[in-house]
Every structure is written in C-alpha cells, then in structure tokens.
Amino acid sequence: MLNIDVRRIVRKIHELAKDMDDIKIMGFCGTHEYVISYYGIRSIMPDNVELIAGPGCPVCVVPASYIDECIRLALDGIRVFTYGDMYRVPGSKMSLSQARAEGADVKVVYSFLDAIKLARDGKESVFFGIGFETTQPSVASRIVHGDVPENLKIVSAYRLTPPIMRYILEKVKDVKINGIIAPGHVSTITGSKAWEFLPKEFKIPVVVAGFEPYDVIIAIFEILRQIKFKDLRLFNEYSRAVREEGNVKAWQYVMKAFRISDASWRGIGLVEKSGLELRNEFIKYDAKVEYGLKFKGGRDVIPGCRCADVILGRAKPTDCPLFLKVCRPSSPKGPCMVSSEGTCAIWARYGTLKIGINLNLEE
Ligand code: SF4
Q1: If DSSP codes are grouped into helix, strand and coil, which group holds residue 350?
Q2: How far is the CA of 309 from the centre of ligand 1 (A)?
C-alpha cells in the first residue's frame, strides 16, 4: 500500500518538475541524507531536481580547536567524557581515540547522565558537550537543577540550527537553494515556527519532515508544488511529532542554563548567534573558564578535504579527491567521514544504492 502511494507521489513530482528550471533542495539533517541515500531517493528524481546535503551533522561542525583542547586536558590526566561519534573525529593532529591510545584519559559515554554518574567518583572530569537543539535540554535541565557534581565541567560546543541555515542563504552566494527540508528531530524542540523566516525573508519553501522515505518524498513533492504555484510557505509534514511551538519547557531549560553567542563552525568560521555558552550563574561548570581553554586556531581541514563545502551544499563527497581513496569510514581524514550523520560516511556506505533495493518500487 505504501509503495503504491509513493509511486503516485513520485509520478506527481515528475509532473511538477516538468518545464521547471534546475531545482536544488537542501536536506538540512544528516538523518535525512541517510534516508535519501539508503533508499536511493536521488535515483528516482527528475533530472532537474537535485537533492543536496546540508550542515546537519553535529560532530562535523565542531572546530578542531575544541578537540585539541579536550585532548590537552585528557593528556593532563583530566578525564574527558565524549560521545562515540566525536571520539573518532580528527582534531588538528589526532582524534580523541588516538589520544587515548597515547595514554589520554578519554571515556566514551552515551549520555550526559552517564557522565554525571561516573563523575560521582570525585575525579576531575570534563564533558565534551556537542549537538544541536535536540541534545541540549537534557544537559541544561541537569545544570539548572544543580544535579551535576562540581568536579564535572562542561565544554560547550553546542550549536543552533536556524542561524547556520540563515548563514548559508545570506553568505554562500554560489549555492542557489530553491527549497529546504528542515530537520524533524530538532523541530520537536524548536517548533516548526523556527523555520518561518525561510519563506518570509528568503522566499524559499520549507518543509519540516520526518524520517521515513515517504516523509522525504512528500517533502520534495510539497516543495515543488509550492514553487510551481508560487505558494511559498512553511509546511509541517511531521505533525505527528512536531508542534508549531515545539517543546517549550525543554527550550526554557536551555535558555536558563545557556546564553546564545556567536560561534565557530568547522572550516566555515564565525556564525552569528549560533552557539551556546553557560550563563554566569553556572560558571562553576564551565571548562573554558576553569582551564583557560582557547578555541582558536587549530587545523579544521587537511589539504584536499572538502568537508566544509559539503556541509554548505557547495560540493558532493564525490567532488573530494580523497573520497574513498585515502578517506574512508575505517580511516576518516575529515569530520564528514566519521559519524552516521556525516554526508561522506553516508555516501561511502550507500551512495550508489538505487531505488528498488531498499524501497522496492518496482511493479
Ligand atoms: S571524503 Fe573525507 S577528506 Fe573528503 S570531504 Fe569527505 S571527510 Fe573530507
């Protein structure tokens, strides 16, 4: 039944795209890129509709200097808690996993709560906090409730998603984006309203979409429909999970614990109001203050790596001369090849899949 519906929508996509100029649709989220690649959705698009990946991989966008500073702490004997994805991302000289092999005190955790539990042993520790709006409330609520041991400090590398989308549309002039698939998970926190500025200010259709293949296909259909009928607006396709106002309580926790600041994105530079810093009342948890960390310098990209261009929609992984030659999921040279949300890692695993393998669209 699902396949019949999908076929019908795909046919409509082809009808809508007929006679249109070339259309570029950016899927913000790494999980959307996974769905597009794993289900071979690109292979059923009309020739003039290109699906490009966006910046929605939280470990890909953390500057190398943050990794370098965490490694410095860990080599000094301060225990660094990190997520598994971040563990393997290259810093300027090495990753946290390589540092651990050299004796650094690095421990992989699944959540901030795990870090809190482990830090109750009293050892001087740091939690490497990364992620978009989805992961921030669970950390913020613990901080606000004072449920964090004082020997556990936080490196805040949290980033916000609407400001980077604004940055791409305002500053990356050589990429013309005609429609955006907004991140579903993030929008459960921010609400769909966080994306209203896209049609209002940039005259671009935006669809908040879920993560089933039909969600993405419906989003593409809706974007083309809006373009065709000049009906540009925000459409929430993921209304089964996302409300207009989002999770107000969760976001209140984030805003109580953190303040919004300008922040660097790996290989891109400073993006206005796109990061989170701990508020003064919680400064006792701030690793940056406690250890005088400097998130400056660092080597974000090695020669040849086009990860920043991939994140900004300027390049595909296959445009990178290192892709699957020296840079592979088993030996990543750039951050986009590490995480399951990294575009290069996704293309390395599923980039050549065609529709019919995982979506079974044949008659
Ligand atoms: S394939 Fe590797 S080196 Fe090339 S852009 Fe991707 S992460 Fe960077």
Answers
A1: helix
A2: 10
Q: Where are the beta strands (DSSP E) in the chain?
A: 23-29, 49-56, 79-82, 106-108, 125-131, 152-158, 179-182, 206-208, 234-236, 258-265, 269-278
- Cα 69 to Cα 64, 101, 129, distances in angstroms: 9, 17, 13
Instruction: Map residue 120 onto helix, strand or coil.
Output: coil
Q: What is the CATH number of the domain that holds 217?
A: 3.40.50.11750
**200: which 2 tokens?**
């209002």
Q: Summarize the confidence of residues 168-173 as an average pLDDT.
A: 96
pLDDT in tens, 130-141: 999 999 999 999
Question: Which residue among 62, 85, 307 has the greatest number of ligand 1 atoms within 8 angstroms of its CB, and so is best to mutate?
Answer: 307
> Are residues 73 and 291 in contact, defined by beta-carbon separation less than 8 angstroms?
yes
Of 211, 219, 217, 218, nearest to 188 by C-alpha is 211
Distance from Cα 319 to the centre of ligand 1, integer Å: 9
328 in a structural domain: no
Domain assignment present for 228: yes
pLDDT of amino acid 360:
54
Q: Is 110 part of a structural domain of the chain?
A: no
* 323-339 confidence digits (pLDDT tens): 999 999 999 999 999 99
pTM (two decimals): 0.94
**Do the domain assignments include residue 92?**
no
pLDDT of 283 strictly over 80? yes
Q: Which range of residues forms the domain containing residue 19?
A: 2-55+173-236
Q: Which two tokens stand for residue 310?
A: 């991939």
Name residues whose C-beta falls within 8 Å of residue 45's C-beta, 6 or more positions apart in sequence: 13, 17, 51, 220
> How many structural domains comprise the chain?
1
DSSP 153-204: EEEEEEB-HHHHHHHHHHH-TT----EEEE-HHHHHHH-GGGGTHHHHHH--
